[in-house]
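User: Second chain of the day. Same drill as before.
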Amino acid sequence: MEFSLQRADLLRELTLSQGVLERKATIPILSNVLLEASEGCLRLTATDLELGIRSSCPAKVKKEGATTAPGKKLFDYIRQLEEGEIRCKVSEAAGGSMQLSSGRSHVRMAGMSRESFPVLPDFPAKLAVIPPKILQAMISRTIFAISEEESRYTLNAALLILKGETMMMVATDGHRLAHVEAEPSQDGYSGVSGEIRVLVPRKAMAELSKLLGDAPEDDGIEFGKDDNHLFFRIGPRLLICRMLTGQFPNYEAVLPKACDKIAVVENNEITAAIRRVSLFSDERTHTVKLQLGKDELKVTATGSEVGECEESIPAVYTASPLMIGFNWQYLTDFLSAAGAQKISMEFKDEQSASQMTPASADKMKYRYVVMPMRV
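Assistant: Same format as last time:
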């Protein structure tokens, strides 16, 4: 195997594989990236058996072949090189090790046989084409609400629902819920008949978001699935993740229906107030209190060892006075993701779940439900 290519092209694809490589080295081959040179390109594959990514970059291939190389070490080395051409040669005489040259830099890197590398499934029949901008916005507005507790298996993913004309994504960790729905598309999502409901793991969503950062807006994301995997094809790149099975909670039953106390506040004002006040919140509970009165919102926190803090900001509020407590991190996660200038905060009472939404016009219906804390 022998080929040459530009450093920038190789580094770009290696960067995308870093989040997929197995770090614990329980199975050594999973720390490697598969390199396959043929037909004017170098194809790269990385997997941890739960998640896999395939990509490619242009290369001048002198001799076709395949090998694997330590993914992290290769990435770190290529990142340190100056721009220019990199030459690569794998010789059986050298025990199958990979020799890299760039300028005056030369390195020999031990690899492992490609026969030891797991075989990833091929892309099945395309089920839908998803606009990348919409999917990326949905991920950023829900991923923070996914549970990180391994014991809550079905909550370690977001529920993706595709219909003929619209798309939804829902995530919850049992304490809060993020729900986002795209506006109906005139063209619909090609190929979707009826309804598709799948659970997308948190790690897959994080890696998908990275891929979407480079995706041209005009190119749709091809979505497919088989019995065990989900597939997202973005141009020449393919993300494959193992599909979670199980019953996602009935999120519709959680959505509040009678929140008649509504306050409208400026996002930047309440975010800044919460961040300052949170410095004095209890380190164990992270509680801050919101006290609502006529056209005013007070944010307060008390820590037994650090003292107390109170801030007041203007709000559009005419209902009866209310005091309610929240985990401040749950609030700032939503405020950061919402992006809107104004936020509508809807309450029923001190013990019931509250709902927050962007008050300004948005191309997506976005709502965030969060449970209060005792104050």
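The CA atoms of residues 146 and 320 lie 34 Å apart.

User: Great, on to the next one.
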